[in-house]
Amino acid sequence: MSIFGTVRVKKGQYRIKGDFHHITPNMPIRNEDDGWRLMGVTNPREMTYIHSYGGEAVFFESLPKGIINGSRCDNPGCEFKGTVYLPFRIHCPDCLGRNTVINLTETCKRSAKIHTFMVCERSGAFNTLDKPIKFINVEFDGVSTILMSYLSIGDPKIGMKVVPIFRTIAPTYTITDLSWVPQDTSQKDLPEGFTFG
Ligand SMILES: [Zn+2]
């Protein structure tokens, strides 16, 4: 059996394989103020969470291919027909219709700039990003929403032009596969595993 549980879908059902449970030794809990009397034991538990992307899967699937997919409401009956969304929205928030998937890669490369940013010296649990983390909110021409992401090189400034980079080598299929660098950055300076797509 593998160390990691794996999941695939066949005939509309999850098929899980491998070890989803691991036996881990208990440790005694003792009371140091009372002669180290036994109080209990720890029961370590490890969890594999099956996170379904649903209608957003197309967004995460395309990142390692150097493609940024957004979405657009094309419902003729919608008051806000034509509105473009990035981050990817499965449904239009105005008419609740299913949005059309659209490729925004060129729009992102051409027009991305930092709307605002936040630099975090400390992180939450299981952080995999380099610290300080330079979170940026990125705006694009013709897009109605602003994308939260992170800057991999340099210091963020409001209005700064940035371009997307993609984890095309060993992708994680999470949002960290997408990052941004200043417009004039060269390939050799990119973080390991990242390319311009
Ligand atoms: Zn709509």
Quick rundown:
The chain has 2 helices and 13 strands; from the N terminus they run E-E-E-E-H-E-E-E-H-E-E-E-E-E-E. The chain is mainly beta. The chain is extended and about 70 Å long.
How many domain modules?
1
Count every beta strand, where a strand is a DSSP E run of 2 or more residues.
Answer: 13
Mean pLDDT: 95
* Helix/strand class: mainly beta
Low-pLDDT segments: none
Key features of this structure:
OB fold (Dihydrolipoamide Acetyltransferase, E2P), three-stranded antiparallel sheet, 2 helices, single chain, 32% strand, binds zinc ion, mainly beta
Description:
This protein is mostly beta strands. The protein has one domain (54-195): Nucleic acid-binding proteins (OB fold (Dihydrolipoamide Acetyltransferase, E2P), Beta Barrel). The protein contains 2 helices and 13 strands. It has a 3-stranded antiparallel beta sheet. Bound molecules: zinc ion.
SSE diagram, text form:
Elements: E1 6-10, E2 13-17, E3 27-31, E4 37-42, H1 57-62, E5 69-72, E6 84-85, E7 100-103, H2 105-111, E8 113-120, E9 133-139, E10 147-150, E11 162-167, E12 178-182, E13 194-195
Antiparallel strand pairs: 1-2, 3-4, 5-6, 5-7, 8-9, 9-10, 11-12, 11-13
Bound molecules: zinc ion.
Zinc ion is lined by residues 73, 75, 78, 80, 92, 94-95, 97.
